[in-house]
Specification:
With 455 residues, the chain is an alpha+beta fold. Helix content is 47%, strand content 10%. The strands form four sheets. It has a four-stranded mixed beta sheet. A three-stranded antiparallel beta sheet has the order 7-11-8, sandwiched between helices. It has a two-stranded antiparallel ribbon with strand order 1-2.
Length: 455
């Protein structure tokens, strides 16, 4: 007799279970492709253990999404004010709708990363046509004929999967009910999105650092669908804020507040110490240089079949070949990757530098190009990209208050950023001397072009 429930072992969640129909989705060509897409791009060149893939991350997101769904829909966890949002019964009085949305959520969580290009985020922003990103590619794959057969078997609408996988921000053309918005928040939400929970835990495990660990068990157990705090609540410093979001959203009971704080801090430290590590950043730049030269027209083809044909394997084979054949496209960048000849970090602005010149990094880039030539200089600035977070908290007495009113950690969590100037190794010694001698003069200028050469 065939098994109705299947399971795989996982280093983060121990076991991940799925039924026979879901197994067919796992075995589909688009999902199996994720076995060959690194989760952390070229971070394995810095952290040797970071060779995990989007495949196992997606399984983990499905597992966590299911846990959250089961917690927030448990009868004793649903507050009276939000009960009408949760579809318990279909038009015939049978409890089918909850099962339907749980299945949609699991498939959206499983498929949320289908559109990632080789080496994930490393080159997606620059190498896709205008208006395209990996979320749009994910949508195209979910809606493609090769996936529709699975959705028809499951009797779920692919448009619903798209909504929950992308969320209102990335699927602005679709209409979201309050319930669908909450379900999408389970996956991609800024505060408690399980996509973030899994990648922090998983990336921390595989890189061998402790920064990304937090008590996700406690956090999930305290998650609730909550109404917004009453208008005009006071923050910890006494300021009065008006909550403009009148619809319920994901929040937590007060007992989970420290776990939520740990999640926010884990995100900050992982971005600061792992995702924005300078050597990881420069390898991403070299990979981008290679792909621009290697890809036809310097862009990825957005056709579904074309995306499904290319993985890290094809790109790796190409840059390994180019590293030893100067006649192949992107040979110089490929050689830097394969033979570890990456550019060296020359400068990162200090807080004092930024006080004198908020564009200190860009100013130094301009000066370095004038001094050493554009081919010997690379610059990357990653500005803070996270909005200040807030979410409702249910106190022991049943009141709903703002998380920022209860926690200075949440209101004051710093934003991770990166600002790196890199130099070609052969001129690194001369560039270091130039930097030490000219730094203060350069950043004191507005453009960095009023200094003399020391070459």
């Amino acid at each position: 007799m065939p098994k109705s429930i299947h399971e795989v072992r996982d280093p983060i969640h121990i076991f991940i279970r799925f039924n026979g129909t879901e197994r067919e989705v796992l075995n589909s060509r688009p999902f199996q492709r994720l076995r060959h897409i690194h989760q952390l791009a070229m971070s394995y060149l810095v952290y040797p253990g970071a060779t995990h893939r989007r495949f196992e991350h997606s399984l983990g997101v499905m597992e966590l999404a299911s846990r959250v769904f089961d917690v927030i829909t448990a009868p004793d966890a649903v507050r009276l004010e939000v009960r009408e949002l949760i579809p318990e019964f279909d038009s015939h009085g049978a409890p089918h709708l909850l099962f339907y949305w749980r299945q949609v959520l699991r498939m959206a969580a499983l498929c949320h990363d289908l559109g990632h290009l080789p080496f994930s985020h490393a080159a997606e922003e620059e190498l896709l046509p205008e208006g395209w990103n990996h979320e749009r590619l994910t949508r195209e794959i979910i809606m493609s004929p090769c996936m529709r057969e699975y959705w028809e078997t499951m009797k779920i609408w692919p448009e619903d999967i798209v909504k929950l996988a992308l969320g209102p921000t990335k699927a602005r053309d679709l209409q979201f009910s309050a319930w669908e918005t909450i379900l999408a928040e389970i996956i991609v939400g800024d505060s408690f999105g399980v996509d973030r929970m899994d990648y922090l835990l998983r990336d921390s495990h595989h890189t061998g650092v402790a920064y990304g660990r937090f008590d996700h068990y406690r956090l999930i157990d305290t998650m609730r669908v909550l109404p917004p705090p009453a208008p005009g609540y006071k923050t910890e410093n006494g300021a009065v804020e008006e909550d403009k979001e009148l619809t319920p959203k994901l929040g937590i009971q007060a007992g989970g507040l420290q776990s939520a704080e740990s999640l926010l801090l884990a995100r900050y430290f992982m971005f600061s110490q792992v995702y924005y590590h300078p050597v990881r950043v420069i390898y991403d730049i070299h990979l981008l240089d290679f792909l621009r030269a290697w890809l036809p027209g310097g862009r990825f083809d957005t056709a579904v079949d074309a995306i499904l044909k290319v993985t890290d394997n094809e790109v790796t084979a190409a840059f390994r070949a180019a590293a030893f054949d100067a006649n192949l496209p992107g040979a110089e960048a490929a050689k830097r990757i394969v033979l570890r000849g990456h550019f060296k970090r020359l400068y990162t602005p200090t807080p004092d530098d930024l006080d004198h010149n908020p564009r200190a990094g860009r100013t130094m880039e301009t000066a370095a190009i004038m001094e050493f030539g554009a081919t010997n200089v690379r610059y990357k600035q990653i500005p803070p990209k996270f909005v200040a977070l807030d979410f409702p908290v249910e106190t022991a007495g049943g009141d709903i208050v703002s998380a920022r009113a209860l926690s200075r950690t949440i209101s004051d969590t710093p934003q991770a950023t990166a600002d790196y100037l890199f130099i070609e190794p052969s001129v690194a010694r001369r560039a270091t001397q130039w930097r030490d001698e000219q730094l203060h003069t350069i950043i004191a200028s507005e453009t960095g072009d009023d200094h003399g050469s020391t070459a």
